[in-house]
Amino acid sequence: MKTILIVDDESNMRFLLRMILEGAGYEVVEAPHGAAALKRATESPPDLLVTDLMMPVMTGRELIERLRADPGTASIPIVVVSANPTAVLDAVDAVIGKPFDPDALLEAARSLSNSEAA
Amino acid sequence: MERWTTGIAELDLVLDGGLPAGSLVVVAGGPGTGKTILAQQICFANATPERKAIYYTTFSEPHAKLVRYLEPFDFFDAGALEERVEFVNLESLLLDEGGRDGDALAPAVTEIVRTCFERRPSVVVVDSAKALRDFADAHAVRRMFHDLSGRVAHTDTVLLFLGEYAPEEMEGDPEFSLADGILRLAYVAHEPVDRRWLRVLKLRGANHLGGKHSVTIDRTGIRVSPRLESLRPEGADLDGGRITSGIPGLDEMMGGGIPSGDVTAVLGPSGVGKTAAALHFVAQGIEEDERCLYVSFQEDGDQLLQKAASFGWELESARASGQLAIYHVPQGSLDLDILGTAVRAGVADGSVRRVAIDSLAELVFAAREAERFPAYARTLAAFLRAAGATSLITSETATLGPMTAPLGGLSFLFHNVVLLRFLEMDSQLRRAVTVLKMRDSDHEKGLRQYSVCGNGISVGDELEDITGVLGWSALREGPPPSP
Hints:
By secondary structure, chain A is of the alpha/beta class. Chain A has helices at about 10-25, 35-45, 60-70, 100-110, and strands spanning about 5, 25-30, 50, 80, 95. Chain A has a single domain, classed as 3-Layer(aba) Sandwich (Rossmann fold), CATH 3.40.50.
């Protein structure tokens, strides 16, 4: 089963993302901000990371920079779910706007986690 | 002291220049009073890529909803999100990480202080700060305010705490004693029109404007109209000359015209010709290439121009060129401070020479707080004079019958008072004009007949040998009785 790490400071967002992704057969783990996500991803790299940008403690932008700078996490596919999908982010694999389209999220998850969910 | 703009020029005026850098300001008010819109407007006005605005939410609206409701406002820029303005939720720091070391609010305080020092935002908002009470007791909340106020003071960031605080909570709760500033927003249901207002209860280091300032919300966001009486107009150098009223014969009655900069009240019952007098005054200004402002509470711009045309004055081109500005306020929408702000803006550049306000009756009606009206009217008149304008203000009196005290005792507000009235004479209803008062100027004391016809008002000869003119009829004095 593919594991997706979702990172968002809003618990309701995490709830929705978890509901949709678990419904499609993914295993989901959560982090409420960039620092907690970095720790989790370093300890156990997920198959896909879905993250917000604007968060306390550590922003999504800093999280992405740190993941890409670490050889152990540099290859994790990253999807950004942001209120401003026009934000320039070269280092990520996909950007989805908020409020998000569940089909777009699942399509990104399917293609970036590199296989159908188990 | 360095200050950050609110993005609202009139609010900056109220705040003596804006929000002091490094201050903690509480924005208090009930639901729907505009706290979030105001805070967002301040964020977007100050945020740059280098000096972002950080909007922390606790248990308020989800960010997607917040953004959706902000989209209609002109100040909102979706492209600025994350680049200049960040929405950050403190929920996890309060729920998951709060409580460690016995202080539920410590992680949130650390986050805010760290952000202020490391990222140097221009503005940080906490919405809702009152919700923090759900996580800690009064002592911890007081400590949080103490810590934030003391630490953020070493930066130049403005910290805004939003909350639905009731007025009684502002009396002694810790948020308010430790805050550097308190802005209170309110919404009052009141006929004929509901009113929002803002009051600055406290702002350290600022000589802010007192009183309730009118607030409206439209596509531009929050608009603030300062309480007119709280402002101090700066005087203009007036030449001491006189201008013509435009009404043939009236200037002669007024000792050669209206003294420049004076405010003249034209009183009379409905239908006697007050609006015609105001149009005369303005049409004369237009003819003399002066800029004019006409404030009307009854006729709208088109109706006024039609009325002027019926007297032979073509004012449409003056309106089109901007020489004549007509500010029409439907009576149901009349708010004294909104009107005051509009009039101040209309004469601000000092180029308007004549202002007509038609009529005072509507203003008095709109003054919900009757006790403020004399000071309001005096300040409005002072602004007009300070801007170098000469003004004519109409006001309605009883249609028939003995003349009671005109303006309900407010005639002291005006330099000059001209009374238009109906008069029963020789079994006919006629019109007569008298100059009741002119400050520091001689004037005719007699009564003259006048007519309103195709070319406006025309003042005739003085009425002689009559008596009882201050009653409801005029009686010709007959020959003395035979001995």
